[in-house]
Design goal:
By secondary structure, this protein is mainly beta. The protein has one helix spanning about 165-170; strands at about 10-15, 30-35, 45-50, 60-65, 75-80, 90-100, 115-120, 120-125, 135-145, 150-160. Helices cover about 5% and strands about 40% of the residues. A five-stranded antiparallel sheet has the order 4-5-1-7-8, with no helix packed on it. It has a five-stranded antiparallel sheet with strand order 3-2-6-9-10, covered by helices on one side.
Length: about 180
């Protein structure tokens, strides 16, 4: 990054999957995000954005929400306006949760999943969750503020086997590889 770069400014995290086979209950995936304060960047999130919420300042919001993967293109889309997030936040972690109603599901049970993270027209990451097939949730992106205040992207899909509520509380904790 050059000295003139302002880092990553605004990203879109998009998720898609195919509907469940006939006779099976619908599959519902959700894009979620947690913001972490500089004083405790690996502790509890200061706030979490999910399917029925947005960040208090309006910088993280869901543009599209699907309950079953029906439709064309990307089923869930979240926008993160990093350039507008208050300076006391040092990290934003984005994850994907598989709703566990009416049956327990992991990524191996999701038909045709896909993930894309992009800034403008530049694709920063793509994934199909093939590395976390036994997980019920996964972190899919981290955005970290550097010493100059610019945001940098840290890719990587990391699986969790928690229920959705526990995942939301723990997704930003430091984990051993």
């Amino acid at each position: 990054m050059s000295g003139l770069s302002k880092g990553i400014r605004k990203v879109e995290v998009a998720l898609k999957w195919d509907p469940s086979p006939a006779g099976q209950p619908p599959t519902d995936l959700d894009v979620v995000a947690g913001a972490y304060e500089a004083a405790d960047p690996y502790g509890a999130p200061a706030y979490v954005v999910h399917f029925d919420s947005r960040s208090p300042d309006g910088t993280i919001y869901l543009d599209r929400d699907s309950l079953d993967g029906r439709g064309f293109g990307w089923d869930e889309v979240m926008t993160v306006e990093l350039d507008r997030i208050a300076e006391h936040y040092a990290r934003v972690v984005v994850g994907v949760v598989i709703q566990q109603r009416p049956a327990r599901r992991t990524f191996v049970d999701v038909v045709g999943p896909g993930l894309r993270v992009r800034e403008g027209y530049t694709v920063l990451a793509e994934d199909d969750f093939g590395g976390v097939l036994g997980a019920t949730a996964a972190t899919v992106a981290q955005f970290v503020r550097d010493a100059s205040g610019a945001w940098e992207f840290r890719p990587g899909v990391q699986g969790f086997e928690d229920d959705p509520e526990t995942f939301l509380r723990t997704m930003g904790r430091a984990r051993l590889s």
